[in-house]
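Hi V.,

You were right to ask for the full record rather than a summary. Here it is.
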Amino acid sequence: MKYKFILLFCTSVSLISCNSGAKIDSENNVRFDSLFVEKAYHLLNVEANPKCSLQINFIFPTEYTNREILSLVQKQFISGFLGEEYVNLVPKEAAEKYAQDFIESYKAEEENFKIEVENHGHDTMESWYTCNETSNNYIVYNRNDIVCFVVYKDCFYGGAHGSHQYTNRVIDLKTGQQVIESDIFVEDYPDDLAKIIVNGIALAYQVEATDLENIGFFNMNEIFPNKNFYVDETGITYTFNEYEIAAYVVGPVSVTIPYEKIRHLLRRESPVSFIAFH
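Predicted structure:
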């Protein structure tokens, strides 16, 4: 086959592509490693045709004192990075399967591509059938029995422009489960938290909240907590992706809310209470 294929993982054999800088030792005593995947395929296996390309840089936990918890946390990393359908695989197998599915999904467009070329010619099809996806994740907090990571995905699936997406995940190392808003906040928190988030966005953009719509934001009354958050010593950071609360030109929007502004909304007993109240 003529398409290029590179699939490099950290292993014990001589062909190793290990990112030693990805290993993180911290208070939580979790060790991380990384794997890299790069794959490309041209439609109909013809190099002159449009192609898809995939690049993955995946950091995941490999060692922890509790092996049962480690297995659950690995599943959280796989789910957050690759998708729920891959959680029953180990990280290397999950990445291999994701890459395989990515190429197979692109190949499904080959019949449509042939029809479009016959009807409209080859030159006009390049941008509409080009497909690129690059994703990586990074650890933003790893203390006090909490691990937080962010997944960044840069995609172009044809059309006028690409997309950029951030997905945040918080994991409780005591249970190996994802921490969600209801674990952290008291009941009836959304309305009050929404106002704090809007004010935080306005402060970041150095405008009044009432002026946000003038710089590309949508209706401020429709901004609410979106479950896409992470925590650290500073506070809780929410991320809103493109088109979620603002026009594409604004891009993804992140706002960090200091704990002192939201302590009245936080549960006293929660996975992040030690961070928030100490």
